[in-house]
Each structure stands twice: as C-alpha cells, then as structure tokens.
Amino acid sequence: QCSTDVVWFFGRISFQSNSLFGPDVAEYLIDPLVRGICAGDCREISVNFLLKDLKETEMKSRSIMLSTAKKLFMKKKSEEKKSKPELARKAEHEGWSVWSLQGGLETLTDSMVDHLCNNGAEIKYDTKITSIELQGKKARIKMESGEEIETEQLISAIPAISLAPLLKKSHPGVSKILQDIKCVTVGLANFEYAGKDLLQMDAFGFLVPSSQDLSVLGVVFDTCSFPQGDKTILTVMYGGHRYQPTTPIELEEICKFSLSKTLGINEEPHRKSVQILKDCIPQYTVGHNGRVNAIDEIISKESLPIIVTGASYKGVSVNDCVLNGIRSAENLLAR
C-alpha cells in the first residue's frame, strides 16, 4: 500500500500558486508538479511562464474554476472550426495524454537526420565550437579543429548556458542574459521487471512533494501507458534543484530504495539503465519571460543573424521543442 503523502496522477490536472488555493495545494500539488515538469523549486520557478494560462485567469477573473471551464468550452468550439491533420484529430478523439513512437523517441531524431542527409544537408558530429561571431549580416562559427563556417543565418538549438560563452566576445549583452537561464542535473534509472501485474494498479506514475522524506522526484509507470507484454518497466527520476547525483551506482541504489519504500518492490530488475544527465532541464525562474523577450528584442532590433530555439526558452517538453522549431523555421523564411 502506497503512502498517501505521495501525489498520484491519472490524467490532466490544472494547478496554480499558493496564493490561489492555499498552502496544502501548493505543497501537495503545485510543488510536485513543478518538480515533475522541470525538476525545479516551485518557490523560484516563474508561474507566469510555466502556468501562464492560469496566471492570466487569476488576473482577469475572480473564479478560476468557472473561467477555466468557460475557456475550455470556448476552445472546443473554436477548434472544431479549424482544419487539423488526421493524426491530430485521432489524438483528440481518443483523448491522448501521452505519446511515443515505435522503437522509442530516438526514431524521431533518427528520421530527421535521414531526411536532412537525403536532401543535401551535412551533419558534423563530435565537433566542438569555440566561438560564434555575429558581424553585420553574417555569423561566423569557429571550431576547435580550426575550421570556420560563415553563414547568413544561424539557428541555435543548444542550451542557453552552452550558447552564452560562445557569444561572450562578439555580443556580451546577449551572452549575459543567456547565462541567467540555469539548468539542473537529473538522474534517470530505468528498471525492467518480469510480470505485467507487479504494480497491481493502472496509473501514469507518481510525483513526490519536496516536503516528504524521499529524495526521488517521482516514478513513471512506463508499461501502464505503453504495455510491453509480460513485463513491468519503471522510470525513476532523481536530482533537480535539491539533490545532485554523484555516480550511477549510488543513483541506482537510491532509486531501488525508493521503489521498495513506495511500491514494495524489492526484487532485482531483469534489465536496467542508469544515467546522469548533466544540466539537462532549463529552469524558468522568476523573470524568465523578461529574459526571453529581451533576447528576442536585441536580435530583432540589431538584426542579428541568429535565431535561438530549444528547451531553454519557450517550453521544456518535446512537444514544445517541435512547435518552437516550426516557428523558428517560419521566422527564418520570413526574414
């Protein structure tokens, strides 16, 4: 039997800050959800950015629930008038809350690589960049090997903290703002067990409030969303703003202990994968919206030959990155 101090989630949940619903909701709902989204501290993360819709609702309406219901109804009616791809209509009709790809999400990037290479693009692997110079209408990229590339437009999808030092000499103003977009390190442990009924429940997973005596961020029940025959696969998340994973061995033991404490799973997994992902999730701390707007304004005002996109700016999820990638391409074509 699982502890009631753990937040279980079975579907979509709308949430807001302490000022809207009180300390209990802030502690047991907002805090773990923010940890689940970006492994961050809800006291530091920008509500205006991650929870933009509800923040606007708070400012415009005295009733969060009534206003949200009204917006959902109006959204549904307006969406009916829009033309959508067949896959989008299927996802909406079937109520998808999560999605994956046959063979894993890496097939998405593999397919992108194949498409690009088949259309004349050149991809340079294991190539360290030492600096980027933005001069007039040209961007010059210098590499550790001594090679240089000059281009009329540059799209940067690397983390802000990686881009910042590359622009320090040619554009210290943008570099300084980029440095303020911090990241946290997260450890992931994937465990595969024999038997599909190991959990004895059907759920997406659970998130852990930071006030609880459990160091993991949460656990995803992978095979509840995507069954894999007679097996149970779990993903344990650890790290973020509070804890720093040290070694894969230590991380594995911490995650196994957490599974034992919360789910009563004490057996050894048949297969496992333990990784420490350094600086992998950007932190949208208070003022993030202003920082992103300032970067966009400088690029626009000075007509800099660069577009920044990726998880550091306008959304940390895969869906966000895909959408912002499309918008970046449209922005490039419009120049």
TrEMBL record:
Primary subcellular site in the record, as a coarse category: mitochondrion
GO biological process per UniProt: protoporphyrinogen IX biosynthetic process
Cofactor note: Binds 1 FAD per subunit.
UniProt KW keywords: FAD, Flavoprotein, Heme biosynthesis, Oxidoreductase, Porphyrin biosynthesis
Pathway note: Porphyrin-containing compound metabolism; protoporphyrin-IX biosynthesis; protoporphyrin-IX from protoporphyrinogen-IX: step 1/1
Cofactor(s) the record lists: FAD
Subcellular localization, as worded in the UniProt entry: Mitochondrion inner membrane
Chain ranges of the Amine oxidase domain: 15-333
MF-aspect GO terms: oxygen-dependent protoporphyrinogen oxidase activity
Catalysed reactions, as listed in the record: protoporphyrinogen IX + 3 O2 = protoporphyrin IX + 3 H2O2
Purpose of the protein: Catalyzes the 6-electron oxidation of protoporphyrinogen-IX to form protoporphyrin-IX.
NCBIfam families on file: proto_IX_ox
This protein's name: Protoporphyrinogen oxidase
